[in-house]
């Protein structure tokens, strides 16, 4: 299993992305391991808020996890955040028209109607609803996000957005604070592997 570490410096937000045959399992293993190894939270207890957002009981830390295909993404920070990762795959041809605002749809068309561009916008939308904790309880096209390419970042409505992308995947985060510096690198790690304890 390889790990891509997407790290935001300054102690505000740190992100880890794992590629695994069991991405869902990896996402759920990754969070407790990160909390224990990076933040000293030995036995994390989680609860769910009324809107469905999971939170860490008795801690000032915030987190968000996502998985799609063989990819798992986990974010932990000192302020609220939301993350999303999606495997790029063709979908129903009318999905972009349904899910994107007029401005977003025009941007999508102008760029050649590529599924990779749709997924960049979709991960930004998902990261926003995970940040707010409200979930996708409204028409996706009513959720406004900045028009970003992978590697781009922007502020919109007082929130910081960042998009990433690679071969076959797109990812995004939404939070309250920008990063002082960011990096995306391949690293060797034990994250996402079963603990031997």
TrEMBL record:
<comment type="similarity">
    <text>Belongs to the P-Pant transferase superfamily. Gsp/Sfp/HetI/AcpT family.</text>
</comment>
<dbReference type="Pfam" id="PF01648">
    <property type="entry name" value="ACPS"/>
</dbReference>
<dbReference type="InterPro" id="IPR008278">
    <property type="entry name" value="4-PPantetheinyl_Trfase_dom"/>
</dbReference>
<dbReference type="GO" id="GO:0008897">
    <property type="term" value="F:holo-[acyl-carrier-protein] synthase activity"/>
</dbReference>
<dbReference type="GO" id="GO:0005829">
    <property type="term" value="C:cytosol"/>
</dbReference>
<dbReference type="InterPro" id="IPR050559">
    <property type="entry name" value="P-Pant_transferase_sf"/>
</dbReference>
<keyword id="KW-0808">Transferase</keyword>
<dbReference type="GO" id="GO:0019878">
    <property type="term" value="P:lysine biosynthetic process via aminoadipic acid"/>
</dbReference>
<protein>
    <submittedName>
        <fullName>4'-phosphopantetheinyl transferase superfamily protein</fullName>
    </submittedName>
</protein>
<feature type="domain" description="4'-phosphopantetheinyl transferase">
    <location>
        <begin position="80"/>
        <end position="147"/>
    </location>
</feature>
<dbReference type="InterPro" id="IPR037143">
    <property type="entry name" value="4-PPantetheinyl_Trfase_dom_sf"/>
</dbReference>
<dbReference type="GO" id="GO:0000287">
    <property type="term" value="F:magnesium ion binding"/>
</dbReference>
